[in-house]
């Protein structure tokens, strides 16, 4: 952008100088026809008059207008270049922002997805662990319950058999109670008395 | 005098009954003698209770007043001082069984031992002997109830 500006200014200056020189030459050619040999002071005076006559108000005004016009053209051109440049820059900036935002969003979503996936895997792992623990506990409990049931079953059977024994004994006692003749029992009674004779004697002697 | 008790006189109650019978017999005998002296008619001789007759015969005594007096004192002494054994059966024993039981006790344990008989139908058979604080259970009930293990063994074999 700056190079264009410098080039424009340089071109303008060269054009001005060229214009001055051309005008000066034209004026010199006009004056040279009137007098053949002039002195240096004459030339200087003539040049001063010529310069004064050249750089009159109209010339200045013309230069100003041309300069203004040229400046405006340059300004317009530069403005156009600036506008194009700005548009380009804006467009590039938009594209860059879009890309950056896309990149950031992509990264964030990737991170989010990764964290979700990690959480999911951890949850699955935890659930699997819990499941395996529950399974183990279930097996242990099953075994314990089985053993307890087996023990209780044995106890119940033992209790039943014991009670059954007592029930049968009581039935026998009820059935035969009073039915057995004492005469038939005498041998049994006497054998028991004989076995415990000494004890009975001791009881009697010690004051039964 | 050393009184020998026959097997028919087992318990204190028997002795009490015997003493009453002796008293009644003595009274009747006295009245007979009195009536003979005063009215000249003779009352029939009073019937001697069998237990009294047995006792007199067992001890080789006669039915005189002196004998009765001596016998009465001795019976009272035995009733008050002799040791007592309680024997329970499932049913009341007949005389024969009772005599055998009493005979064994008097033969093997002590000659003047008194045996008080009771009934406990639930023992089913055998007997239960109580000598003061000690109890000897020879009943069938205790045998049956104490043989649950054998019963279980039988059940196992039956299975």
Summary keywords:
heterodimer, A: 208 residues, mainly alpha, 2 domains, 5 helices, 0% strand, rod-shaped, B: 159 residues, alpha+beta, four-stranded mixed β-sheet, 6 helices, 4 strands, 53% helix
Widest beta sheet: strand line-up of chain B:
2-1-3-4
**Percent of residues of chain A in beta strands?**
under 5%
Distance between the termini of chain B: 67 Å
- The count of β-strands of chain B is 4
Q: Profile the largest sheet of chain B.
A: 4 strands, mixed
Number of domains of chain A: 2
Mean pLDDT score of chain A, rounded? 84
Largest sheet of chain A: none
Element string of chain B (H = helix, E = strand)? HHHEHEEEHH
Largest interface: A-B, 32 and 39 residues
Model description:
The complex is a heterodimer of chains A (208) and B (159). Chain A is an all-alpha fold and 208 residues long. In chain A, 92% of the residues lie in helices and 0% in strands. Chain A is built from 5 helices and no strands. Chain A has helices spanning 2-34, 40-54, 57-176, 182-195, 197-205. In chain A, helix 1 crosses helix 2 and helix 1 packs antiparallel against helix 3 (57-176). In chain A, 5% of the residues are buried. Chain B has 2 domains: 12-80, no CATH class; 83-145, no CATH class. Chain B contains 6 helices and 4 strands. Chain B has helices at 12-38, 50-58, 65-81, 95-108, 140-145, 148-158, and strands at 84-89, 114-119, 126-131, 134-139. Chain B has a 4-stranded mixed beta sheet with strand order 2-1-3-4. In chain B, helix 1 runs antiparallel to helix 3 (65-81). The longest helix of chain B has 27 residues, at 12-38. The model of chain B has no long low-confidence stretch (mean pLDDT 84). The chains are: A mainly alpha (208), B alpha+beta (159). Chain A binds chain B through residues 161-162, 164-166, 168-169, 172-173, 176-178, 180, 182-183, 185-186, 188-190, 192-194, 196-197, 199-201, 203-204, 207-208, and chain B through 83-85, 89-91, 93-94, 96-97, 100-101, 104, 108-110, 113, 121-127, 129, 131-132, 134, 136, 138, 140-141, 144-145, 147-148, 151-152, 155.
């Amino acid at each position: 952008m700056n190079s264009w500006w410098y080039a424009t200014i340089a071109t303008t200056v060269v054009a001005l100088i060229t214009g001055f020189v051309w005008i000066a030459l034209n004026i010199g050619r006009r004056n040279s026809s009137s007098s053949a040999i002039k002195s240096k002071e004459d030339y200087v005076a003539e040049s001063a008059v010529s310069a004064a006559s050249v750089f009159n108000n109209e010339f200045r005004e013309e230069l100003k207008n041309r300069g203004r016009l040229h400046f405006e053209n340059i300004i317009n051109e530069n403005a156009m270049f600036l506008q194009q440049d700005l548009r380009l820059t804006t467009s590039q900036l938009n594209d860059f922002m879009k890309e950056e935002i896309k990149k950031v969003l992509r990264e964030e979503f990737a991170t989010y997805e990764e964290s979700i996936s990690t959480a999911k895997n951890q949850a699955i792992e935890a659930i699997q662990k819990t499941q395996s623990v529950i399974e183990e506990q279930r097996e242990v409990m099953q075994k314990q319950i089985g053993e307890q049931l087996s023990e209780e079953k044995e106890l119940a059977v033992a209790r039943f058999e014991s009670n059954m024994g007592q029930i049968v004994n009581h039935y026998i006692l009820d059935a035969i109670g009073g039915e057995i003749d004492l005469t038939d029992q005498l041998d049994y009674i006497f054998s028991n008395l004989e076995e415990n004779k000494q004890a009975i004697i001791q009881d009697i002697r010690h004051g039964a | 005098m050393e009184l020998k008790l026959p097997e028919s006189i087992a318990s204190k109650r028997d002795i009490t009954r015997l003493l009453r019978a002796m008293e009644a017999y003595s009274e009747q005998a006295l009245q007979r003698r009195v009536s003979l002296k005063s009215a000249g008619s003779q009352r029939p001789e009073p019937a001697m209770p069998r237990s009294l007759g047995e006792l007199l015969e067992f001890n080789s005594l006669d039915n005189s007043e002196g004998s009765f007096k001596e016998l009465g004192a001795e019976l009272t002494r035995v009733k008050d001082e002799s040791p007592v054994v309680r024997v329970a059966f499932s049913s009341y024993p007949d005389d024969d069984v009772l005599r055998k039981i009493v005979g064994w006790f008097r033969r093997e344990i002590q000659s003047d031992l008194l045996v008080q008989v009771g009934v406990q139908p639930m023992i089913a058979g055998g007997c239960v002997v109580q000598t003061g604080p000690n109890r000897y259970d020879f009943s069938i009930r205790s045998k049956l109830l104490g043989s649950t293990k054998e019963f279980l063994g039988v059940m196992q074999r039956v299975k």
